[in-house]
Specification:
By secondary structure, this protein is an alpha+beta fold. The chain has helices spanning 4-9, 26-33, 79-90, and strands at residues 34-39, 42-47.
């Protein structure tokens, strides 16, 4: 959840940068990355971009719907992560830290 400047300074190996210019762009980025749907008590998502496939389990194959990935958030102060975590949890993601 770092902004462009913070991301240029540093990021964790394997981190996915949504390349959003403001937090208000994050909800539409999530919507564009995942086709979220509810099936009973389970939420499943189809990963739309190849960039995100590296954070899903390798045993997930094209014939099975992808499960929502585990998400570890980081930013500089914590507020953006709190807001983003809340958004992802409300969209059906279960493992967001």
């Amino acid at each position: 959840m770092r902004n462009t400047y913070e991301t240029r300074i540093g990021k964790f190996k394997g981190a996915v940068d949504p390349c959003t210019t403001a937090f208000r762009n994050f909800p539409s980025w999530v919507e564009n990355q995942f086709a979220l749907k509810q099936e009973g008590n389970e939420t499943q998502a189809k990963v739309e971009k190849e960039d995100f496939s590296e954070i899903t389990h390798k045993e997930d194959k094209a014939e099975k719907p992808k499960t929502l990935p585990r998400i570890a958030m980081y930013c500089t102060g914590g507020i953006r992560c709190e807001k983003a975590s809340s958004l992802l949890l409300s969209q059906g993601f279960e493992e967001v830290t």
